[in-house]
Amino acid sequence: MNNKRIIIAIDGHSSCGKSTFAKAIAARLGYIFIDTGAMYRAVTLYALEHGAIVAGIVDEERVEAMLADIDIDFRFNSQRGASDIYVNGDLVEGKIRTIEVSNCVSAVSSIAAVRHKLVAMQQQMGRRGGVVMDGRDIGTVVFPDAELKIYMTADAMVRAERRFKELTAKGDKVTLEEVYENVVSRDKADMSRAISPLRKADDALVLDNSNMSVEEQMAWFDAQFERVAGM
Ligand code: DC
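That is the input. Now the predicted structure with 2'-deoxycytidine-5'-monophosphate docked in place:
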């Protein structure tokens, strides 16, 4: 068994189960799981709560000016078996996945200064290896030398249905159409933005999980990991 603790970069479309998959892999390997989308959501939430987003319009200069006041950290929650995200010491895990944050996060994540700050934090968190990091630019920008890169995708309606179930289970009043629109528009925004757009790294393996169970995805992963890490 090879004990080298590698970097596993998982990129892909929104709502295709990247976090669930990444979390399961991290638990299996005893690696740290880092949800970088949560970091962009946390900045968006802060901007919403501090007047830098009004009626859905993001004031980029104000967001940039606020960055120095935003301190993000992750703390392990043993009940959830994953880390919770905190902003300036406040637990925001439950507040960052609303449709309001989802609707503004693509605009916030296209601000260069936001990316600059968060990418530097992510590189710092992953520098020792033994991490599974999920996002949009992990294999292309954050860790271009990651030993294992996975590009996840799934049919847009399948993704919308999954996210709709999650949101309604939490009591959010949303329609499937609204969630579908958000999924499609975020795909478009993430793939067409000028800085670090979502794209498959040349050396990434594609995992389309439209018709795959979590168990099937894990079996697929085990085969890839064995090949790369020589387990
Ligand atoms: O993974 P998620 O849906 O929670 O991510 C929220 C948004 O954050 C997504 O629409 C794009 C942005 N994001 C990004 O630009 N780069 C990342 N590494 C992760 C997320």
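Strands lie at 7-12, 32-35, 53-54, 57-58, 72-77, 82-87, 90-91, 131-135, 148-153, 205-208.
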